[in-house]
Write a structure and sequence with these properties.
two-stranded antiparallel sheet; 71% helix
């Protein structure tokens, strides 16, 4: 037994969250249970591309999530955006799950942020559906996830609020590393079309090979997740 609110309980909860993320696909009906979370991690990724484009002054046009869990984001560039900006938008996708995951894990360290963080995530999901999402899978699954988060945030106990933040944070973090094969692929087939992978697009802009950028993205994501976990587990807040 561990004391409620202790560091040991925190560690145990994070381990349980990680175990569920990894083990769900292997359980009976696990693929169906994990499906909404697969769509959510794709949303993390594609929103990373779209928000990166917006931050650099581009026009985020639409976000498409396909039924198999893949997806893409489309943005309009005014003229020639330059190699660095193209590379930044390409990197925004694979880094986004780690960014979202780190923020959720950080929020789990402070009780006052538990509900606001979940409300913010649900609000961003709804906003993206209204403005950018343009596929039946995204339009059907993402609102259900948002409504579930809103219901949970209003009705759940503190334990489940914190666990939800940590589960979704670990989900984002692990999904980043589960993209290993995609990151080390120069081209990918998405929606029936062959296109450059994210690291392939960075290679096309910045010349160094795609595997170098894959390693750089994994290292940066690992630093973000590690720092957020260290902060959340460092001492009681």
């Amino acid at each position: 037994m561990v004391a409620p609110g202790s560091q040991a309980e925190q560690v145990g909860r994070l381990i349980l969250a990680g175990f569920l993320v990894i083990a769900l696909p292997s359980l009976p009906l696990g693929n169906y249970l994990i499906y909404p979370f697969t769509i959510l991690t794709t949303w993390f990724h594609e929103m990373g591309h779209g928000l990166s484009a917006m931050a650099l002054g581009f026009d985020f046009q639409r976000l498409v999530i396909l039924s198999n869990g893949s997806g893409y984001a489309e943005s309009l560039y005014p003229g020639d955006p330059g190699a660095l900006k193209r590379a930044a938008v390409a990197a925004g996708g694979p880094l986004a799950p780690a960014v979202f995951g780190s923020l959720l894990i950080l929020a789990s360290a402070h009780r006052k942020f538990w509900r606001p963080a979940l409300y913010a995530l649900a609000g961003l999901l709804i906003l993206s559906v209204v403005i950018w999402v343009r596929s039946w899978t995204g339009l059907s699954v993402l609102p259900m996830i948002a409504l579930a988060l809103l219901f949970l945030t209003q009705k759940a106990s503190d334990y489940w609020l914190r666990f939800t933040l940590q589960f979704l944070g670990v989900l984002g973090a692990l999904s980043m590393f589960q993209q290993w094969d995609y990151l080390f692929t120069e081209q990918a087939r998405i929606g029936g079309q062959t296109m450059l992978s994210d690291t392939g697009a960075i290679e096309a802009s910045l010349l160094l090979p795609h595997w170098f950028w894959a390693l750089a993205i994994i290292a940066l994501a690992g630093l973000m997740i590690g720092a957020s976990l260290k902060y959340a587990l460092s001492h009681q807040r």
